[in-house]
Amino acid sequence: MDSNTASALGILTHLVEPADVNDTMERVASEGKPANKYPGTPKNANHPVAAFANSFFSDGNMSMLLNGTCPDGFDAEDRNVGRQLKSLSRTAPIALRMASELLDGAIETGGDLNAGLALELSSLEDIFSTADALEGLSALIEGRRPSYTNS
Questions:
Q1: DSSP the chain
Q2: Does the domain at residues 92-151 carry the CATH identifier 3.50.50.60?
Q3: Range with the lowest mean pLDDT among 33-42, 59-68, 80-89, 109-118?
Q4: Tens digit of pLDDT for each residue in 102-117?
Q5: What residue spans define the domains of the chain?
Q6: pTM of this prediction?
């Protein structure tokens, strides 16, 4: 990912020329931590990568993505769509579902960090007690691609 894309997505908080790095660092240090450093939305929703991500990973598409199918209106043969589908296909379906549920729960906490952390901590046993979690860790240790069973 290039720096302009990272900036558009909000991953970078400041994008400056090399000659301006020291001045920018001094300014950032003097201003202190911003109230909403990572707002959870792209800085530039019109950037092609942000627009694709917002439409492809929309709430309406999540059930199809969690089931391993290409969402309506997208072509699985498209390079970007194919990459995302391939990446998702290599992820444990149960882990995707649990992550989606945790993200939905985080939204319901209304930005309350302690409530969000409590929700995540309360799910750790469920997450790591799955057969797919053991398979993923075993495959990593053994240097092979995991074979998930959605259990």
A1: --HHHHHHHTS-S----GGGHHHHHHHHHHH-S-TTS--SS-S-TTSHHHHHHHHHT-GGGHHHHHTT-PPTT--TTSHHHHHHHHHHHTS-HHHHHHHHHHHHHHHHTTT-HHHHHHHHHHHHHHHHTSHHHHHHHHHHHHTS-------
A2: no
A3: 33-42
A4: 888 888 888 787 888 8
A5: 92-151
A6: 0.69
